[in-house]
UniProtKB/TrEMBL annotation:
Alphabetical keyword list: Membrane, Transmembrane, Transmembrane helix, Transport
Annotated membrane topology: Multi-pass membrane protein
A cellular component term, taken from the record's GO annotations: membrane
Name of the molecule in the record: Maltose/moltooligosaccharide transporter
Domain of life where this protein originates: Bacteria
Record bears the keyword Transport: yes
UniProt cross-references to InterPro entries, sorted A to Z: MFS (IPR011701), MFS_dom (IPR020846), MFS_trans_sf (IPR036259)
Major facilitator superfamily (MFS) profile domain location: 244-444
Length: 444
């Protein structure tokens, strides 16, 4: 009997507890994705320079994720486990970065805060992905990643609406030119508290399984000591990555290019095209920026609902992960494209609802497919390496990919970035047809 077959099935609440830390992680990502471009604009950034201000974050992820995955694969403590020490380290650093980011007094400080924040969240995030594969048999993998997505959807919806809510209860939404409004500062402070407490909850409520063969585990760890041994193994695993992982990488490239485009340009594009507001110190712009956050919250809310539907389905029947992912991404692509054509502001909810379907699938289906295709003893490092296919498209987008492509394909108006995001997401959906491995595409 395989190690995977020996794993007991877990209850919904056991899976919920081990995934609950993602609530805080997504608070960090939603506030970062929804409002860092607003902070950059407030501090004087021109629209076309915004992607470059994001570049340090994916560059760091490219390095940090495989290393953290490798180290967590080789960590075991009878009390603290394998993945949980990395949860705690990442939580402490992320909390500090999230709290101080909106107090940046210059663009370079804000860009540095984003860099520290993204790197710190990454320390926690991929071990959470690996924990699902560590704890669940293959028959529960889709369900486990969908529960994570449900929690991520809750976090996205609440966090994206925090500045708007702060404004509603009377916290100022405007400030002097070059100063971030208090509504954003309060939102980031609340996010910092939620991030730390939710990850701590998972640490305190979740036990980890020891390695199946502890003696062999310790022997491998001893044989691979040293700084260069780790890098050698990481590069060897990259060179020998499974075919399924490489094909998923193509899907991931176009998916994350699309979402990086949204995070970078949704605020400037929608405030200008839909609300006709461009003066970053004006009440019109700041109210519009709050509204953009509210609409971005819609994709989190819908991703939560879609994850609930998927959780129910995957708990009852086996699904074709490839087809679910393909149609979900195409739906999201249509949502992005419709932003350009809407005639009423409320229609943004419809657009981002379609984006939410794609987001729910992006956060679950690729990881379910990948976890069924790699060696369980190398789950952490492969989850980290898989992150390359998330950060590389963001780097390409940041160094000019977005600016070059939207102007070349569509025109000079910043709203055309949403057409680019939609096109990229549809290509990502169709790329799922490359994946033919049944073990990856179907539940075990």
């Amino acid at each position: 009997m395989s190690e995977d077959q020996n794993k007991p099935k877990l209850s919904f609440w056991q899976i919920w507890n081990m995934s609950f830390g993602f609530l805080g992680i997504q608070f960090g990502f939603a506030l970062q994705g929804g409002f860092m471009s607003r902070i950059f604009q407030t501090l004087g950034a021109e629209k076309d320079t915004i992607p470059m201000l994001w570049i340090a974050a994916p560059l760091t992820g490219l390095i940090v994720q495989p290393i953290v995955g490798y180290l967590s694969d080789r960590t075991w403590h009878p009390k603290f486990g394998r993945r949980r020490p990395f949860f705690l380290i990442g939580a402490i650093l992320s909390t500090l970065a999230l709290f101080f980011a909106p107090y940046s007094s210059a663009l370079w400080i804000a860009a540095g805060s984003l860099w520290v924040l993204d790197a710190s969240i990454n320390i926690s995030m991929e071990p959470f992905r690996a924990l699902v594969a560590d704890k669940l048999p293959d028959s529960q993998r889709s369900f486990g990643f969908v529960v994570q997505t449900l929690i991520i959807g809750i976090g996205t919806w609440i966090a994206s609406n925090l500045p708007w809510f702060m404004t509603q209860i009377g916290i100022p939404n405007t400030a002097e030119p070059g100063v971030v409004p208090d509504s954003v500062k309060f939102a980031f402070a609340i996010g910092a508290v939620v991030l730390f407490s939710s990850i701590l909850y998972t640490i305190l409520t979740t036990e980890e399984y020891p390695p199946a063969d502890l003696k062999a585990f310790n022997k491998v760890k001893e044989e691979n000591k040293g700084f260069f041994a780790g890098f050698t193994e990481i590069f060897r695993n990259i060179a020998n990555m499974p075919e399924v992982m490489l094909k998923l990488g193509i899907v991931q490239f176009f998916s994350w290019f699309a979402f990086f485009t949204m995070w970078s340009f949704a605020t400037p594009a929608i405030t200008e095209h839909v609300f006709q507001a461009t003066d970053t110190s004006s009440i019109e712009y700041n109210n519009a920026a709050d509204s953009v956050g509210n609409y971005l919250g819609t994709y989190g809310l819908v991703s939560m609902i879609f994850a609930l539907v998927l959780a129910f389905i995957t708990s009852k029947v086996k699904i074709n992960r490839k087809l679910v992912h393909m149609f979900s991404l195409i739906a999201g692509g249509v949502g992005f494209i419709l932003i350009y054509f809407i005639s009423e502001v409320w229609m943004l909810h419809l657009c981002f609802a379609l984006v939410g379907i794609a987001w729910a699938s992006i956060l679950s289906m690729p990881y379910a497919m990948l976890s069924s295709s790699v060696n369980p003893n190398q789950m952490g490092v492969y989850m980290g390496i898989f992150n390359m296919f998330i950060v590389i498209p963001q780097i390409v987008a940041a160094i000019g990919g977005i600016n070059i492509m939207y102007k070349f394909l569509f025109g000079e108006e910043v709203i055309f970035t949403m057409l680019l995001a939609g096109t990229s997401l549809i290509i990502a959906g169709l790329s799922n047809l490359l994946i033919t491995n049944r073990a990856a595409t179907h539940d075990g």
